């Protein structure tokens, strides 16, 4: 399916994308390119779509090199953050536009015999099929400016899928939506992509959007892919402290693991990691209020959130860390409290080539690969 080999994009002296390799080799699978602002995500997407010339590297599809094929002949579906629907057309009109463009693109690459111009009845049937796929049956005659943000993105998805593209590229598709809707729509998008059997690349800076959407996440920082993992392993085993900080871990402790027990400055904690040296990555929920916990700390600040307390605490010999409590914990600034370290909410960074089963999925500078041939 899609293979990006050693893609680099430079603007003058500045390298925006550095030697990125990406493979998606199964229809219906989603690879998320996750990285901070300016890390090169959109440049990779544009390079795959043919919207950005590559300084070096290749893009191929099913073994065919399409690096120099113009954008309208690549048969790639694109969905952007704001959907970019035609406001003067109905929902059906927007989806039909996708069909027209798609069949034209296919005719342009000599694919007209296998995908002939559709009759009116065939177009109508395809629109109905897509409305059903994206959960908008009955919305065909609605004007798109009468849709909610989530509905509009569903239409954008249907329009992109209409010509049965061989690849779907989603650029921050849910970023304009509010949090709750974003999470719900992410689950639907995943289902829609799986049903359509279209290999899909999504770029996003939003951790939970990537986790909700993707079968596999490639972390890109400063133009380089630093880790490729299924979402669960990414947060369990960040490749290094740079990736871990981007993922939200804030404090790092040297540790030595033996038989599933890590010994560190905060004592011993059960973790999932191979015997040997490691670094424990502590996030907001690694240290939790526990009246008889082994860690003594002084509360520096407390914020009450709907799902519990978030604190900054000072720990002798370690420094300031984040910690969490429930809404039932009575905690005030300056108080001395006891905390427990939750190994299941702590990242374990193991040195490369340590032999850990989970470490196989995150090799620095590796190629991102998602689908049946994934090497995890
Ligand atoms: N045409 C250009 N000329 C010069 N520099 C560019 C150009 N396009 C992008 N860049 C730079 O390349 C880097 C990567 O940009 P890109 O848009 O790919 O990042 P991104 O990860 O998608 O960021 P964001 O999440 O903010 O959209 C940025 O530093 C950007 O300023």
Explain the overall architecture:
24% of the residues lie in helices and 33% in strands. It is built from eight helices and 21 strands. It has a six-stranded mixed β-sheet, with helices on both faces. The longest helix is centred in the first third of the chain and has 18 residues, at 91-108. Helix 2 packs across helix 3 (120-133), helix 2 (91-108) packs parallel to helix 4 (149-161) and helix 3 (120-133) packs across helix 4. The protein is an alpha+beta fold and 376 residues long. Bound molecules: adenosine-5'-triphosphate. One of its GO terms (molecular function) is ATP hydrolysis activity.
Number of helices: 8
Hetero groups in this structure are: adenosine-5'-triphosphate
Ranges where pLDDT stays below 50 over 5 or more residues in a row are 103-115, 356-367, 372-376
Oligomer: single chain
Trace the largest sheet across and list its strands. Answer: 6-7-8-3-9-10
**What's the helix-strand series?**
EEEHEEEHHHEHEHEEHHEEEEEEEEEEE
Q: Main β-sheet, in a few words?
A: 6 strands, mixed
- How many strands? 21
Helix content: 10-25%
What fraction of residues sit in β-strands? 25-35%
Overall spatial form? globular
Radius of gyration: 24 Å
Mean pLDDT over the residues: 88
Secondary-structure-based class equals: alpha+beta
CA distance, first residue to last residue: 18 Å
Can you give keywords for this protein?
disordered C terminus; 8 helices; alpha+beta; six-stranded mixed β-sheet; five-stranded mixed β-sheet; binds adenosine-5'-triphosphate
């Amino acid at each position: 399916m899609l293979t990006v080999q050693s893609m680099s994009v430079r603007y003058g002296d500045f390298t925006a994308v550095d030697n990125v390799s990406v493979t998606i080799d199964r229809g219906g699978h989603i690879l998320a390119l996750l990285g901070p602002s300016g890390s090169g995500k959109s440049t990779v997407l544009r390079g795959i779509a043919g919207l950005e010339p590559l300084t070096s590297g290749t893009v191929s599809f099913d073994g065919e090199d399409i690096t120099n094929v113009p954008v309208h002949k690549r048969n790639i579906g694109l969905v952007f953050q704001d959907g970019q629907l035609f406001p003067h057309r109905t929902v059906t009109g927007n989806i039909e536009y996708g069909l027209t463009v798609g069949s034209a693109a296919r005719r342009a690459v000599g694919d007209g015999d296998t995908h002939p111009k559709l009759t009116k009845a065939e177009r109508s049937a395809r629109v109905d099929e897509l409305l059903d796929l994206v959960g908008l049956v009955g919305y065909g005659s609605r004007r798109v400016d009468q849709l909610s943000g989530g509905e509009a993105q569903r239409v954008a998805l249907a329009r992109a899928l209409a010509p049965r593209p061989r690849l779907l590229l989603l650029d921050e598709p849910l970023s304009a939506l509010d949090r709750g809707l974003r999470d719900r729509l992410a689950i639907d998008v995943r289902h829609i992509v799986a049903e359509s059997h279209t290999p899909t690349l999504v770029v996003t800076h939003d951790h939970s959007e990537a986790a909700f959407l993707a079968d596999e996440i490639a972390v890109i920082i400063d133009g380089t892919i630093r880790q490729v993992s299924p979402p669960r392993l990414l947060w369990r085993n960040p490749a290094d402290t740079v990736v871990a900080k981007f993922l939200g871990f804030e404090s790092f402790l040297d540790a030595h693991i033996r038989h599933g027990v890590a010994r560190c400055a905060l004592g011993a904690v059960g973790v999932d990691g191979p015997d040997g040296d490691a670094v424990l990555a502590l996030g907001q929920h690694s240290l939790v209020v526990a009246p008889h916990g082994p860690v003594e700390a002084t509360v520096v600040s407390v914020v009450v959130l709907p799902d519990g307390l978030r604190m900054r605490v000072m720990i002798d010999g370690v420094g300031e860390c984040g910690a969490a409590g429930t809404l039932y914990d009575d905690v005030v600034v300056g108080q001395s409290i006891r905390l427990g370290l939750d190994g299941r909410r702590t990242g374990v960074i193991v040195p490369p080539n340590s032999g850990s089963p989970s470490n196989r999925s995150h090799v620095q500078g590796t190629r991102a690969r998602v689908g049946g041939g994934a090497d995890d």
